[in-house]
Amino acid sequence: MKASQSTAKPALITTPKDTEIRIVRTFDAPRDAVFLAYTDPKLVAQWMGPRKYRMTIEQMDVRPGGQWHFTHIDTDGTKYGFHGEFREVVRPERIVQTWNFEGMPGESLQTALFQEQNGRTTVTSIVKFERKEHRDGMLASNMESGLNEGYDRLDELLRTTH
Amino acid sequence: MNSDTLSATFQAVADPTRRTILARLAQGEATVQELAEPFPISQPAISKHLKVLEKAGLIERRREAQRRWCRLQAKPLQEVAAWATEFQQYWDESFERLDELLKKEKGT
C-alpha cells in the first residue's frame, strides 16, 4: 500500500507590522503535549529544524531569565548557532524568549501562544525584530517574486494581513 | 548565505521611496528623470536614494549622451528571497516533524 501523503498545511507566515513576522500552525494534539514538545529539550531536538540537520542543545533552562543555546549542524559540517533567554514561561499557554542567530545582525523577541480547541492546538508565534530593515527584506522579496519565477512559496510567506 | 549582502540589501530597501524605485526598475531600465517623476521630492534627493541602491549593488547606472540610465541588478534581492524561502521551509519541515512526534507520543 502506498504511504499516505502528509495532509499537513504549511505554516501561515504573515507580516502584520513593520517589524513583525507571525507564524501560525495547528497541530492535531492537546495543548499540554504541544507545549511539552516546545519545552523538553529531548523532544525539541527531535523536531526543530530541517531533517538533514543534526541538532545539539547546549543549554535549555525553561524559566524566566533562563538561557538557551542550540546548534544546527548541516551535512557538510557547517554549524548554525542560536541562543537567547526565556523571558516568560506560562505553562501551557505562553513562552516569550529572545532569539539570536549567531552571525546575523539583530536580536528578535519571540512570543509563542498555545490555544486549544476540540483537542487541536494552534500555536501562534510572533517574532518582533529590533529594526524595520531586519524584516524589510521580506518586502523586497515580494517584489522579487515578480521578477523570478520559482519562489512559489513566497506569496504565502509575504502575504500581509492589512 | 552572505550576511553582509543581506544587511546591505535590508538597509537599502528599508525606505519606501527606494522600494518604489526598485519596483519601477523591475519593469525595465529607466532614466533618472523618469524615476524622479512620481515623487514630490527634488532630483538631488532621488540621486541620493539611487546612490544607496547602487552601493548595495541593487542598481547599475550608465550614461548615454545627456541621459542617465538605471537598471535593476536582481542578484542581492535573490539572496533575500532565498533567505525568506528558507525561513518558510525551515518552519514547515520542523512542524511536519513535530506532527510526527506528537502522533508517536499519542500512540505510546
Task: Summarize this structure briefly.
The complex is a heterodimer of chains A (162) and B (108). Chain A is α+β, with helices and mostly antiparallel strands. Chain A has four helices and eight strands.
Proportion of residues in β-strands of chain A: 35-45%
Strand line-up across the major sheet of chain A: 1-2-8-7-6-5-4-3
Principal-axes shape call of chain A: globular
Count of separate DSSP helical elements of chain B: 5
Contiguous helical run count of chain A: 4
The geometry of chain B reads as rod-shaped
Query: Rg of chain A to the nearest angstrom?
Result: 17 Å
The H-and-E topology of chain A, N to C, reads as EEHHEEEEEEHH
Q: Provide the low-confidence segments of chain B as ranges.
A: none
Please describe the biggest sheet of chain A, giving its number of strands, its sense, and whether it closes into a barrel.
8 strands, antiparallel
**Helix content class of chain A:** 10-25%
Task: Jot down its keywords.
heterodimer; A: 162 residues; Alpha-D-Glucose-1,6-Bisphosphate, Chain A, domain 4; eight-stranded antiparallel sheet; 4 helices; globular; B: 108 residues; Arc Repressor Mutant, subunit A
Element layout with pairings:
The complex is a heterodimer of chains A (162) and B (108).
Chain A: E1 12-14, E2 20-27, H1 31-39, H2 41-47, E3 54-60, E4 67-73, E5 79-90, E6 94-101, E7 107-117, E8 120-129, H3 132-147, H4 154-158
Antiparallel strand pairs in A: 1-2, 2-8, 3-4, 4-5, 5-6, 6-7, 7-8
Helix pairs in contact in A: 1-2
Chain B: H1 3-13, H2 16-25, E1 30-31, H3 32-36, H4 43-55, E2 59-64, E3 67-72, H5 75-107
Helix pairs in contact in B: 1-5
